[in-house]
Write a structure and sequence with these properties.
alpha+beta; five-stranded antiparallel β-sheet; 44% helix; globular
Length: 181
């Protein structure tokens, strides 16, 4: 029963599955299609990393169950990393280390100003100079290391906003609450 639950929630026993060549090719094609000047070799490299690196992170983070269950372990101190922003930060750093010439990596937050919903962070990839709204969401947290991707505005689960804008607004609200503004 537990194995079925974990698989249904995106955390199969033994870790997330390795991506197929077809999955990687589909992501590479979508990245290439972002704009005509995107280098197809860079798109292919980015797609491979976006699928393969989260598998390494899942092992490194000790992912054995659903994302929310793992979050509880991190928040209790039982695991050092594995919150959504850890996945986003680590994937962003890995992609940025490639020094792409035609691609750019962004960060975004969903539900970041809603006190009722849990905020969620992710990395995105766009053509160099484009905004995150013209990008592709790369979300390895959502399914426990198995990559979810879609165009930013086509993500049916989350409405994404620039990370720095959300953080600035949170700071402004905190300062106002503390009477510092």
């Amino acid at each position: 029963m537990v194995t079925l639950l974990l698989a249904a929630c995106g955390a199969p026993e033994g870790g997330p599955p390795k991506a197929t060549d077809a999955q990687i090719t589909a992501l590479a094609a979508s990245i290439s299609a972002l704009r005509s000047d995107v280098d197809p070799q860079e798109a292919a490299r980015a797609a491979r990393i976006a699928y393969d690196y989260p598998l390494q992170l899942a092992k490194q983070y000790g992912i054995t169950d659903t994302p929310l269950a793992h979050n509880r372990k991190v928040n209790r101190g039982d695991r050092p990393r594995g919150l959504c922003w850890h996945w986003a930060e680590d994937l962003q750093a890995k992609l940025n280390s490639e020094n792409f010439k035609t691609l750019e990596i962004h960060r975004a937050i969903a539900n970041g100003l809603n006190p009722i919903l849990i905020s969620h962070s992710t990395a995105l990839i766009s053509a160099k100079g484009d905004t995150m709204y013209e990008a592709i969401v790369l979300d390895p947290w959502r399914y426990g290391g198995k990559l979810f991707w879609s165009k930013t505005l086509e993500d049916k689960r989350y409405d994404w906003y620039p990370r720095l804008e959300i953080l600035a607004e949170r700071r402004k609200r905190r300062l106002a609450y503390e009477g510092a503004l």
